[in-house]
Amino acid sequence: MGQDRKSGKGDTDGDAVREPSQAERTRQDILEVATREFAEKGYSGARIDEIAALTSTTKRAIYYHYESKQGLFIAVLENAYRGIRALEATLDLDHLEPADSIRTLAGFTFDYQWAHADFVRLVMVENIHHGAHLEAAVSLRNVNVPILDAVHRVYARGVATGVFRPGIEPIDIHMTISALAFFNVSNRFTFSRIFDHDLGDPAIRAARRSVVIDTVLRFLQADAPAAG
């Protein structure tokens, strides 16, 4: 009875939560700090020395875990994309009516990107570098496939039931949702200054969220005019 100290197993047969190792904690600490640094200062502006100084580790340890500055940035990008994709997978889109699925996905994307401004900034930084680091991130190529598959299934159900009009590519649906949500973070301060329209105001943000969802649904609805 009780816990087997040698095997680490107890009566729950491995159900107990495994404590992260020191190496895992160190990597997570580095990733969290590096995410902030790259998001705020860009790839060129972020410094490994400063990231090391802000963590409970050393520059040598960072290179041990990630090999180079590029390796660390790729790890940051991978972590960022895996974060949003993991939460998208919990939305249960296949068990909602097609319109409700799109409404849920669009609302989630809007909320996630607003709450994770660093994610938006990292994407902007990577676009400045023409996607060069993502090109090297082989493991990421399959991470983003599930969201397109999910959108495809929802859209196909919507077309089959007459809710959505045919002829739209799933990637265009995903791109439209992403773009409408992305803008509110990427252009928040310039748009707010130019038009005196504070996108950070909760009431304005809530209204904008409704507009984004409504725009996506109108784009897809069966009686909408075809683009061209």
Automatic annotation (TrEMBL):
Residues 47-66 bind DNA. Pfam families: TetR_C_29 (PF17938), TetR_N (PF00440). PROSITE patterns: HTH_TETR_2. Residues 1-26 are annotated as: Disordered. This is TetR family transcriptional regulator. GO terms for molecular function: DNA binding. Keywords: DNA-binding. Residues 24-84 form the HTH tetR-type domain. InterPro entries: Homeodomain-like_sf (IPR009057), HTH-type_TetR-like_transc_reg (IPR050109), HTH_TetR (IPR001647), NicS_C (IPR041474), Tet_transcr_reg_TetR-rel_C_sf (IPR036271).
